[in-house]
């Protein structure tokens, strides 16, 4: 370990190498915590109706091909270990969604006795006795209902405040992830665990197997196509209820810092072509994440539109 530390500090660390390492570490921290917000959101809601299973399935296929391509290309062990972690995390989230979908489907199929009881009650028994014999009581009740409906159709300051607080908490969470990632890189650099990768490798050493490249491009296509079912579902339901905003914010942060880490490391042709599939997969999904952010801003959880419709 002392020899590695001495080797790491033998040459001065350039700004590009440092930024590449910091961005890569932040990306790693983002991916580690990525699925946790959605798992918590599903648990709190007791439902997984908000998230598209097609989105998770295609994403899972992308992680599998990413793992196979990384192992075939002989990438560093940390990349392979992270790809394995992705696959297990995907399985946990998919299993949770299937569990809630099956559980809620069974509940909805149970026969309800409430409607039968109401059908057996006498017609006179269903009328509100509080309104019997009081002139104008029905008009007062109707006007009170209309006032409540008009009030519910107006934007609530409490709802706007809670939405603003949610954005603030999510932003603070992102800052915390960035701090953890940067601190992790600094510790790894000081202890010699992280060493800058040389940018001038031999041609034979930089060759990527054709099969690994194909798997890498397949993974990029899956990542690009995975969010499309979710975007369509949000647009169809005109709601983002059940989705964790922090989940997509961490995805955006992870993809952006991953691409920045690669580009800050080197822009040489061989290195760029080797990492092109992963660049396409990470940077391309940023556009789709922004689209989902716009849907969050436009639709929210669907409460406003339902209030207006009422």
Helix coverage percent: over 70%
Taking the sheet with the most strands, its summary is: none
Q: Overall 3D geometry? A: globular
Strand percentage = under 5%
Output the number of helix runs: 14
Mean pLDDT: 77
Low-confidence stretches: 1-10, 123-141, 143-154, 303-310
**What is the terminal-to-terminal distance?**
68 Å
Instruction: State the total count of DSSP E strands.
Output: 0
Region (Disordered): 109-157
InterPro entries: LAAT-1, PQ-loop_rpt
Membrane topology: Multi-pass membrane protein
Pfam families: PQ-loop (PF04193)
Characterize the structure shown.
The termini are far apart. The protein has helices at residues 2-8, 15-33, 36-45, 53-73, 77-109, 114-120, 123-126, 137-153, 157-191, 203-206, 210-237, 245-265, 269-299, 303-309. Helix 4 (53-73) packs antiparallel against helix 11 (210-237) and helix 11 runs parallel beside helix 13 (269-299). The protein is globular, with a radius of gyration of 27 Å. The protein has one domain (19-107, 157-195, 212-300). By secondary structure, the protein is mainly α. It is a multi-pass membrane protein. One of its GO terms (biological process) is vacuolar transmembrane transport. InterPro entries: LAAT-1 (IPR051415), PQ-loop_rpt (IPR006603).
How is this fold's topology laid out?
Layout: H1 2-8, H2 15-33, H3 36-45, H4 53-73, H5 77-109, H6 114-120, H7 123-126, H8 137-153, H9 157-191, H10 203-206, H11 210-237, H12 245-265, H13 269-299, H14 303-309
Helix pairs in contact: 2-9, 2-12, 4-5, 4-11, 9-12, 11-13, 12-13
């Amino acid at each position: 370990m002392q020899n590695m530390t001495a080797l790491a500090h033998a040459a001065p660390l350039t700004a590009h190498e440092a930024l590449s390492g910091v961005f890569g570490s932040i990306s790693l921290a983002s991916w580690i915590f990525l699925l946790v917000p959605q798992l918590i959101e599903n648990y709190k809601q007791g439902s997984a109706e908000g998230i598209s299973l097609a989105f998770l399935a295609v994403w899972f296929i992308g992680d599998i091909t990413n793992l196979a391509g990384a192992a075939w290309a002989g990438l560093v062990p940390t990349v392979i270990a992270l790809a394995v972690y992705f696959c297990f995390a995907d399985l946990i989230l998919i299993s949770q969604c299937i569990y809630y979908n099956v559980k809620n489907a069974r509940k909805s199929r149970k026969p309800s006795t409430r409607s039968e009881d109401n059908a057996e009650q006498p017609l006179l028994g269903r009328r509100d006795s509080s309104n019997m014999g009081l002139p104008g009581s029905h008009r007062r009740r109707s006007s009170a209902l209309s006032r409540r409906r008009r009030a519910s159709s107006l934007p609530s300051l409490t709802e706007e405040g809670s939405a603003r607080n949610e954005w603030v908490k999510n932003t603070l969470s992102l800052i915390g992830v960035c701090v953890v990632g940067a601190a992790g890189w600094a510790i790894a650099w000081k202890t010699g665990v992280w060493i800058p990768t040389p940018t001038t490798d031999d041609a034979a050493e930089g060759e990527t197997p054709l099969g690994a490249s194909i798997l890498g491009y397949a993974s990029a296509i899956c990542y690009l196509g995975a969010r499309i079912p979710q975007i369509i579902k949000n647009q169809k339901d005109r709601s983002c209820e059940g989705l964790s905003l922090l989940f997509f914010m961490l995805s955006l942060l992870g993809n952006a810092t991953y691409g920045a880490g690669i580009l800050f490391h080197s822009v040489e042709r061989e290195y760029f072509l080797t990492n092109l599939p992963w660049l396409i997969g990470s940077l391309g999904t940023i556009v789709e994440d922004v689209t989902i952010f716009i849907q969050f801003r436009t639709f929210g959880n669907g409460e406003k539109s339902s209030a207006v419709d009422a």
